[in-house]
Amino acid sequence: MKKILAFVYKWLKFGLLATKKFFITLFKTLTYNNKTRMGFAILAFFALIAIFGPLIFPYNALTNEVNKFAPPSFEHILGTDNLGRDLFRQMINGSRDVLIIALFTSLFTIIISITVGISSGFIGGAYDRVIQTITNLFLTIPSFPIMIIMASFFTIEDPITFAIVLSIWNWAGLSRAIRSQVISLKERDFIQICTVMGMSKSHIIFKELMPNISSYIFINFILIMRNAITASVGIMMLGLAAFEPSNWGAILLRAKDIGALLIPEATIFWLTPIITIGIFQTGSILLASGLDEALNPRLRKN
Amino acid sequence: MKNSSINKLKRILTTIVTVVGGFFYKTRFLWKRIGFALVTLFLATVFGFFLIKLMPGDPITMFAKRLSDQRRIPLDDAYRLATLLLNYDPNISVWQQFVNYTAGLLKGDFGTSMFRDDVTVSLIVKDFLPWTLFVSSLALFVSFIVGIFMGGRMAYKRHGVGNLLSNSYIVTSGAVPDYLWGMILIFIFGVTLRWFPIQGNYDILLEFKGWPFILNVLYHAFLPIVAFSIVQIGGWALAMRGSAIGVLGEDYIYAAKARGLSERKIISRYLRRNSLLPLITSLAMSFAVLFGGSPLMEAIFNYPGFGSEFSKAIGTRDYFLIQGLMVFMSFVMIIANLIADSLYSLIDPRVRRNNS
User: Fold this and answer.
1) What is the domain partition of chain B in residue ranges?
2) Interface residue ranges in chain B relative to chain A, Cβ cutoff 8 Å
3) Which of A107, B6, B19, B141 sits a CA distance of 20 to 30 A from A288?
4) A141 and B330: CB-CB below 8 Å?
5) Partner-chain contact B299 A270, CB within 8 Å
6) For the segment A187-232, what is each residue's pLDDT rounded down to a tens digit?
7) For residue A208, how many other CB atoms are within 10 A of its CB?
8) Burial code of A168-177, b = ≥16 C-beta within 10 A, e = fewer?
9) Average pLDDT of chain A?
10) What span, in angstroms and rounded, lies between the C-alpha atoms of B126 and B108?
11) CA distance B114 to B52
12) Nearest CA to CA, how far is A285 from chain B (Å)?
């Protein structure tokens, strides 16, 4: 009994220490320089708004024609839209979907590119050649028209489908970059030694290769999220996936459809989503380039 | 006598074989690329072929119904006519269908609109692609030039106010997508100040020739070009800075500094010229991407271009047009990529050696 307790205690301690170490490293990396601090703060702010915002500021979709394009006031912080609904609450309510779409697009894209890139670089030979030809096709056929086509073929009604549509044609570039990294890593001593020692392939891939490309993948995760927001807003603005009327892209689509650019009092209506998107994207750019400096040893020396 | 002539012939033949073989051997990187491009073209054809099969709601029957309404013929005849017109017969084997489809593509027949017989893909390409290419290639040119100057300067002077300004410009301009910049520009210069027109590609009242017409076209294209450039300049500047930082470590830059050349001379004669080379491929690739058009920008500016035709086809669910335009775009991209790659390896022999 004592032995078991000691065993459990040992592993608990180990687990706690490992978690603590992980969070300390994460915190250190995220606060490495001003860029990462700013970027992390902005993204964390958006994440908090997406999680808790709709609870604090519930959104009432009832229309009220009398109150249309009301100027900002205490009651309506950013005024109202063309149907008299509160714009601020709409933006907060829509942020959840926007972020979920971006997050899942990133996740799917990364999973596909890691699978394709590592297998192609690791196995090599004829398999590699076939995969590279297919990757080349995905790279040369422009992605945005394909996304539009897919968005019109499948009726997009939930964020996950949208994320699949956005990620299915986006993995090629990243998978090629991962492949070339794997190929150059394969020739390095520590992998060669592992191969000579007869270690299993899964050990080499997950314990030796993955840690070496994880920082690169993490940076790309943020960059793909950023591109996913641009693409999703674009597709929504073409009116192809307007399933959630408070989504930022859907707000922009409505603004475009009613000709809000020509209505002076509607300026805040179309400008708010643009500025919000701009702030979010600035946060991701700053975090990504800051992390690049923090994690890339070549840049760190300078 | 006879023997010597045979020898002569032999010599000539060997020379020919060596010259031709040598030519093929020297340009083997090019043949490899062409072969690769042909494979990709084939895959794109397969892709286009299956695109029509994946389309929801049986478009052939829809097309046949419309034909029978329009020409007042029975549905069976209309169906046969539809399969004839579309190069698509559901009763023959998939292989035969694919062969027919490919034969149509080789003849330059990329497809016809589902709703209007007189609208074909080649017609859209001929009428709308020039406008798209005009705007987007001018924007590409402008942003490339500005970006190169900005990037070169940023690499040479890595500290100071100029660098901080450039950096913040790059971050903020890249943060908002180009079509949203278009909206902002329309609001400021089109609606509020009324300096520039907010839609169309030229004044329809003008005659289709002469300087006034060209100026008018440029006047209409100004805002879209600026909107494209705002975002693209940052990308080029970053690429140029990366390339130029590599060049800065070279000996000839130190030598130039040691010779006491002025800063401007070093940047323009040594730094910029040598760091331009890697950017040429990306320039060619970006030019290829332009053939896809930019549906969003053209939608915002109501500019009649290739992209807006594409989104119009999507909006009306004109599946045959969508497929044809898509296949055309992919073909152009593949060929443009091939040209860009080959050009680069002709310019830079190092690439050639590494790849062959």
Assistant:
1) 121-315
2) 36, 39-40, 43-44, 47, 51, 54-56, 171-172, 174-177, 179-180, 183-184, 186-187, 190-191, 198, 289, 292, 295-296, 299-300, 310-311, 314-315, 317, 322, 325-326, 329-330, 333-334, 337
3) B141
4) yes
5) no
6) 888 888 888 887 888 888 887 788 788 888 888 888 888 888 888 8
7) 17
8) bbbbbbbbbb
9) 82
10) 13
11) 12
12) 7
What pLDDT sits at residue B1? 57
Which residue, among A36, A141, A248, A287, would best test binding to B if mutated, counting the most B CBs under 10 Å from its CB? A141
Q: pLDDT tens for residues B232-269?
A: 898 899 888 888 888 887 888 888 888 888 888 888 88
**If you count residue pairs, one on A and one on B, with CB atoms under 8 Å apart, how many are there?**
104
pLDDT for residue B146: 92
Residue A301 pLDDT: 45
Secondary structure (3-state) at A239: coil
Tell me how many helices (H) and strands (E) chain B has. 16, 0
Comparing A274-283, B114-123, B320-329, which segment has the lowest mean pLDDT? B114-123
Residues from chain B that touch A133, judged by Cβ atoms under 8 A, are 36, 39-40, 43
In this prediction, residue A109 carries a pLDDT of 92
Nearest CA in chain B to A137: B40
CB B301 within 8 A of CB B223: yes
pLDDT digits (tens, 9 = 90+) for A69-99: 777 777 777 777 777 777 888 888 888 888 8
Residue B204, pLDDT above cutoff 50: yes
pLDDT score, position B356: 37
B330 contacts in chain A (CB < 8 Å)? 140-142
> What is the chain B residue with the closest CA to A151?
B314
Q: Which two tokens stand for residue A235?
A: 């597709």
Mutate to test the interface with A, among B34, B230, B296 (most CBs of A within 10 A): B296
A38 within 8 A of B168, measured Cβ to Cβ? no
Structure tokens at B175: 């943060």
φ/ψ of A239, rounded to 5, equals 75, 25
What Cα–Cα distance (Å) separates residue A156 from each residue in A108, B71, B179, B315?
17, 36, 22, 15
The dihedral built from the CA positions of residue A25, A26, A28 and A32, taken in this order, carries a sign that is positive
CB of A242 within 8 Å of any CB in chain B?
A: no
* Residues with Cβ within 8 Å of residue A244, at least 6 apart in sequence: A94, A97, A250
Q: What does the pLDDT read at residue B33?
A: 80
CA-based nearest residue to B331, from A263, A264, A137: A137
Domain at B121-315: CATH code: 1.10.3720.10
| Per-residue model confidence (pLDDT) at position A302 | 42
Contact A262 B329 (CB under 8 A): no
Residue B352 has pLDDT above 70, yes or no: no
* Distance of alpha carbon A59 from alpha carbon A53, whole angstroms: 10
SS3 for A261-296 is: HHCHHHHHHHHHHHHHHHHHHHHHHHHHHHHHHHHC
Distance from the Cα of A184 to chain B's closest Cα (Å) equals: 15
Whose structure tokens read 């320039």? B283
pLDDT tens across A42-67, in order?
Answer: 989 989 988 888 888 777 777 777 77
Q: CA of B257 to nearest chain A CA: how many angstroms apart? A: 21
The three-class DSSP label of residue A179 is helix
